[in-house]
């Protein structure tokens, strides 16, 4: 089959590789019908995710048709159309049973690599480093899906791939980010980053009762999308002092909750952002937490900082004194996708949201290397690339 | 470890066998040699009285400390102990625990049939139960060889513990016990395993010591994690055999 393989920093290629096969009794093989490039794939592309190796098949946002099932698979059959969560969960361990699917104890075969860095291992992920499982990803013609009765959700006929594909990651991720804010009537939510996760966080914050959402970015078309499609008030940090503006816009209180939908490669133009960039280039720090710092500093007293953005290693110069002095609550982590599949599919079916509005580019899997390049450079107003094999 | 007089100590430092943090890990003869050399270096550097000889003074003082206390922090860091007369007995001692989301009854029943052990242990090829208490074990050795021994159960309490040891004529003496205790708040069962491998005897024993000695603690931890996964999910998650790109395949 054809698959997108990591070859090195800024170097991904379509290669011919063997087809995947059933390796364990709860596996299924999916013929991929749609797959997307995630913002977090760019962290790999840019060389910031440790233990990604040349030859690894990337991609964790994918859906398709079941073509083969293992001997112990009971709920799926050949021909079923499914969306696959990017987190792999067993459904049996303490964490799965506590609805904390991305913390599954049992799905990372390379648990000791993650334990060395994090103390304990989270769940395995598709196409996202050996430390997090080393599973081949879904930017390919076929993919092997472990614990096929636990993760994949069947999609009713009549719903197009584009409407449901983002249930795999970014829609639940944005939704969880908003849910973590424990939104109360009257709450104002600030969202850093108007990429796809930020867009869905804005939409979800309104769904969950926010009175106002303020979106922060510097890319004009992304701010415009947040304003026009998701009804956000917008701040361009390259033109505005975000701290001052947020205070003004909230009558001096500050946002009730702040969502960092940026993660470890924040851009920013302030001195601390330039310092982070220097640290990262010199390999003295792994992550650039500029957006997170600003979220902590601007959040109102007693507020919540919700962090869907990915952080991987060590953060420098965190204003922990501010977080402590203001009694902030922090909520973060990989998304417990399994928790949200059914309720969010229901919202799509009812027409409450059509997530396909964020797609800017459609292409063939063969053109994936070009897709990575334009998504990274934000060329051609790129917000989301969807590919079909 | 090529020096067979060196004693491997517990690699997990939880100190049941030797609770002293600053343990004696340098043998008597080495301590005497350290004292002589350290003394000579100290005297030499004090007589020279040049800045360049200052490091020698430091080394000399370090050797004297090592000689008088019997503790060497370099040995400590490398997990070497040449003090083979006291403290720790020869061999490997490992204790590890894991929590499994199943009842003690289920886990005990699975483990009590030793023929199940090779399903989740890396180094065992097979275990054959001979009768109620005795079993025959076959383990992997380097270069495709095998090592075999008979073992007997020496203690068991249903749903709580099983303890076994190799019979007298085993190439590598070993003993183990596994303990099952209900975890608090319905969190399943805490499974604790204690393993001991005796001093190697003969060339096969030395080869085996290498296998068991490389990272015995990590190996037992890996085996326990596989046990947990097999018990909770019915399989051991893997990626072995999945496709990858040419650049990875060529590696």
Short description:
The complex is a heterodimer of chains A (389) and B (251). Chain A has 389 residues and is α/β, with parallel strands linked by helices.
Write the topology of this structure.
The complex is a heterodimer of chains A (389) and B (251).
Chain A: E1 2-8, E2 11-16, E3 28-37, H1 39-45, E4 61-69, E5 81-84, E6 87-88, H2 94-97, H3 111-118, E7 124-125, E8 142-145, E9 153-154, H4 161-164, H5 170-179, E10 188-192, H6 196-207, E11 212-217, H7 220-230, E12 233-236, H8 242-249, E13 257-260, H9 271-281, H10 290-298, E14 304-307, H11 320-325, E15 329-332, H12 337-349, E16 361-364, H13 368-377, E17 385-388
Parallel strand pairs in A: 10-11, 10-13, 11-12, 13-14, 14-15, 16-17
Antiparallel strand pairs in A: 1-2, 3-4, 3-8, 3-17, 4-5, 5-9, 6-7
Helix pairs in contact in A: 5-6, 5-12
Chain B: H1 28-48, H2 54-69, H3 73-78, E1 92-100, H4 104-112, E2 124-129, E3 134-140, E4 146-157, E5 161-166, E6 174-182, E7 189-197, H5 202-214, H6 216-233, H7 246-249
Antiparallel strand pairs in B: 1-7, 2-3, 3-4, 4-5, 5-6, 6-7
Overview of this structure, please?
The complex is a heterodimer of chains A (389) and B (251). Chain A is an alpha/beta fold and 389 residues long. Chain A contains 13 helices and 17 strands. In chain A, strands 3, 4, 5, 8, 9, 16 and 17 form a 7-stranded mixed beta sheet that branches. Chain A has a 6-stranded parallel beta sheet with strand order 12-11-10-13-14-15, sandwiched between helices. A two-stranded antiparallel ribbon of chain A has the order 1-2. By secondary structure, chain B is α+β, with helices and mostly antiparallel strands. In chain B, β4 and β5 (161-166) form a beta hairpin. Mean pLDDT of chain B is 77; it is low at 1-21 and 84-89.
């Amino acid at each position: 089959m054809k698959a997108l393989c990591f070859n090195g920093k800024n170097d991904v290629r379509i290669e011919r590789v063997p087809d995947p096969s059933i390796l364990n009794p709860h596996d299924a093989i999916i013929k991929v019908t749609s797959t997307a490039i995630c913002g977090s794939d760019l962290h790999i592309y840019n060389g910031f995710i440790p233990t990604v190796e040349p030859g690894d098949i990337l991609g964790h946002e994918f859906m398709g048709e079941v073509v083969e099932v293992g001997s112990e698979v009971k709920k799926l059959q050949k021909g079923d159309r499914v969306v696959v969560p990017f987190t792999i969960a067993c459904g049996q361990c303490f964490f799965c049973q506590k609805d904390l699917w991305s913390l599954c104890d049992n799905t990372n075969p390379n648990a000791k690599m993650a334990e060395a860095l994090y103390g304990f291992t989270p769940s395995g992920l598709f196409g996202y480093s050996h430390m997090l499982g080393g599973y081949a990803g879904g930017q390919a013609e076929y993919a092997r899906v472990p614990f096929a009765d636990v993760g994949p959700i069947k999609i009713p006929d009549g719903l197009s791939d584009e409407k449901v594909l983002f249930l795999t990651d970014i829609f639940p991720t944005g939704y969880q980010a908003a849910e973590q804010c424990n939104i109360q009537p009257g709450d104002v939510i600030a969202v850093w980053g108007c990429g796809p996760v930020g867009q869905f966080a804005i939409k979800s914050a309104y769904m969950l009762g926010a009175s106002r959402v303020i979106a922060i970015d510097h890319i004009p078309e992304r701010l415009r999308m947040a304003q026009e499609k998701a009804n956000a008030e917008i701040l361009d940090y390259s033109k505005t002092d975000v701290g001052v503006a947020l205070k003004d816009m909230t009558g001096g209180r500050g946002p009730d909750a702040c969502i960092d939908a940026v993660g470890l490669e924040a851009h920013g133009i302030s001195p601390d952002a330039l310092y982070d960039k220097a640290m990262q280039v010199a390999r003295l720090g792994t992550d650039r937490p500029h957006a997170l710092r600003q979220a902590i500093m601007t959040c109102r007293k007693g507020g919540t900082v919700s962090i869907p953005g990915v952080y991987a290693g060590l953060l420098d110069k965190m204003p922990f004194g501010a977080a402590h002095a203001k009694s902030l609550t922090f909520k973060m982590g990989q998304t417990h996708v399994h928790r949200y599949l059914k309720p969010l599919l229901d919202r799509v079916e009812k027409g409450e949201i059509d997530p396909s509005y964020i797609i800017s580019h459609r292409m063939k899997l063969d053109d994936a290397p070009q897709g990575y390049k334009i998504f990274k450079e934000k060329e051609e107003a790129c917000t989301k690339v969807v590919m079909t094999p | 470890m090529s020096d067979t007089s060196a004693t491997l100590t517990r690699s997990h430092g939880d100190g049941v066998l030797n609770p002293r943090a600053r343990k004696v890990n340098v043998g008597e003869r080495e301590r005497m040699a350290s004292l002589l050399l350290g003394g000579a270096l100290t005297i030499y550097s004090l007589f020279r009285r040049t800045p360049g000889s200052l490091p020698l003074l430091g080394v000399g003082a370090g050797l004297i400390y090592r000689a008088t206390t019997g503790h060497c922090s370099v040995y400590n860091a490398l997990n070497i102990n040449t003090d083979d007369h006291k403290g720790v007995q020869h061999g490997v001692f490992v204790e590890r625990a894991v929590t499994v989301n199943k009842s003690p009854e289920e886990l005990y029943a699975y483990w009590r049939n030793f023929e199940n052990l090779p399903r989740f242990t890396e180094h065992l090829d097979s275990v054959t139960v001979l009768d109620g208490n005795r079993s025959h074990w076959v383990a992997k050795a380097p270069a495709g060889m095998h090592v075999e021994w008979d073992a007997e159960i020496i203690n068991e309490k249903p749903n709580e513990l099983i303890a076994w040891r190799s019979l007298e004529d085993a190439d590598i003496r070993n003993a183990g016990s596994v303990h099952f205790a209900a975890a608090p708040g319905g969190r399943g069962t805490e499974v604790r395993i204690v393993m001991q491998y005796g001093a190697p005897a003969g060339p096969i024993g030395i080869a085996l010591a290498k296998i068991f000695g490389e990272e015995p603690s990590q190996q037992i931890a890996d085996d326990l994690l596989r046990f947990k996964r097999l018990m909770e999910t019915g399989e051991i998650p893997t990626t072995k055999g999945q496709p990858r790109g040419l650049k990875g395949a060529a590696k």
